[in-house]
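As a warm-up, study this chain.
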Amino acid sequence: MNEIHHRCKCTGQEFTFDEWCARRREHDSAEIVFEYGGFGWNINDVCMTPNRPITWERDRYMIEVSTAMSPNGRWDYGINIRL
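Now compare it with the structure written out below.
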């Protein structure tokens, strides 16, 4: 039985465990597989080219907000905090 191990929403691809392992050996996870609205997405449905409208750094921490339009037309955001 070939159960689906990973689904890429951006491309509609579905991978079994063996197919996923083979793909990971052959391709970099930062490789852009889908583009929409000027943004590039990897096989894990992560935007690799987001806008970064806010970046705030101080001595010991950094806060960054990133935004991107997802393939369904909705704007998504992420917050990266390093302490």
